[in-house]
Amino acid sequence: MSALARLFRRPALRFTVLLPVVRPPTLLPFAIESVLAQTVPEFELFVVCDGAPTETVSRVREYSRRDPRVYAFPFAKGERHGEAHRDMVLRQARGRSVAHISDDDIWFPNHLEEMGKLLAEVDFGNVPHIQVTTEGRVAALRRDLGDPTIRERMLREKFNAFGPTFAGYRLDAYRRLPEGWAPAPPDIPTDLHMWRKFLSRDDMTFATRIAITGLHFPTSRREDMTLEQRVAENGTWWERVQDPKQRDAIAQDALRDLVYRKRS
Q: Do 35 and 45 form a contact (C-beta atoms < 8 A)?
């Protein structure tokens, strides 16, 4: 049965998860497994293959055969980062809310649970953006979307308070926008361009929920790493996330950084 045919057989769900990918699937399993491990099981995972190689599409389809919540959407390479593909698949979404994860990031098992609590109260929001440094330290971005000054900076400056892995929004709020995901101008990050469409609206509500629910591994700071090194790095952190005690230790480190590090 095709992905499209299966979609129309599904009831409404709590979440649609978008996972865009353009490269080979070497790091992808960590992201997909972290979605499948969620404490909230009522979701559909849309893997949006933006000109990704055939081995990536094949790997996603392997997951789809194992778990019917996973859908592969193969596209030819789209403009910029294939943002228009994301809008296209969201037209078929059945989740009440939408969450995102990058193909080289990892969620904790509580991510959708915490996003569900957040999006029960607001239209668009985030949990803290937690990134892993190349030295192996966790660092938190101290930015509260409930703060009007943060929202104003995001609207007026090239200032992004969080990446897609930590963001979420109600599907009905997304569908009220005049334009959804679309190619961003060359000088504006793809995600910030999308977030501004929410933040410019007076009829929507915003907040940040303080919960540590994921890890980001910035590619821009790993340009000197080989793919094998990146796989080893993600694998080490994935193993840590599987252990409740180690996962709690990571969260505590992130919270300490969030609370005690000098504001930036």
A: yes
User: For the chain, which ranges sit under pLDDT 50?
Assistant: 264
How many other CB atoms are there within 10 angstroms of residue 228's CB atom?
9
Dihedral sign computed on CA atoms, order 164, 34, 218, 259: positive
Beta pairing partners, 100: 18
pLDDT of the residue at 3: 58
Right CATH for 3-260 from 3.40.50.720, 3.90.550.10, 3.80.10.10, 3.40.50.1240: 3.90.550.10
Bridge-partner residues for 44, per DSSP? 16
CB atoms within 10 A of CB 256: 12
Q: What integer pLDDT is reported at residue 261 of this predicted model?
A: 78
pTM recorded for the entire structure: 0.93
Tokens 């300490």 sit on residue: 256
CB 74 within 8 A of CB 49: yes
Check residue 264 and give its pLDDT: 46
pLDDT of residue 6: 55
